[in-house]
């Protein structure tokens, strides 16, 4: 729970999602137009394509956060903000029933944990291709 770096979520080699992941990586690393890079490939399931990009985005954000977390402590970052006009407050309806101001590192740890739970939830991101619930995405 106190970890700031989480290992990448991996796709099983040989699966359709792994192939979609490889295609997404290749398009993002090739310097192509981003609009074209995120377009649904012909014949692929939209939910699977979105799921691959969500997991990749989470992994990239996790790496970026890992590089700055040592500089943002509860003392140096006492508020989770988006500049002087915006303050983010945490609410999860479990421990934090009302929006609660938290130091940025605590907020980020709660956020990353919450996202990881969502990504690992088989009802939202099933590992079987083509089985995503329509109402979720």
UniProtKB/TrEMBL annotation:
Zn(2+) binds at residues 72, 77. GO terms for molecular function: kinase activity. The keyword Zinc applies. It comes from the Eukaryota. The keyword Kinase applies. SUPFAM superfamilies: Mob1/phocein (SSF101152). It holds the Pfam family Mob1_phocein. Keywords: Kinase, Metal-binding, Transferase, Zinc. This is MOB3B kinase.
């Amino acid at each position: 729970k106190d970890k700031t770096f989480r290992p990448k979520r991996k796709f099983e080699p040989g699966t359709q999602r792994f192939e979609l992941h490889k295609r997404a990586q290749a398009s993002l690393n090739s310097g192509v137009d981003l609009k074209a890079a995120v377009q649904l490939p012909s014949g692929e399931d939209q939910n699977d394509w979105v799921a691959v990009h969500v997991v990749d985005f989470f992994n990239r954000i996790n790496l970026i956060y890992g590089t700055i977390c040592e500089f943002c402590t509860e003392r140096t970052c006492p508020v989770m903000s988006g500049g002087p006009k915006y303050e983010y407050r945490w609410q999860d309806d479990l421990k934090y029933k009302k929006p609660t101001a938290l130091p940025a590192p605590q907020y980020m740890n709660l956020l990353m944990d919450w996202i990881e739970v969502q990504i690992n939830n088989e009802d939202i991101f099933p590992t079987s291709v083509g089985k995503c619930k329509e109402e979720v995405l």
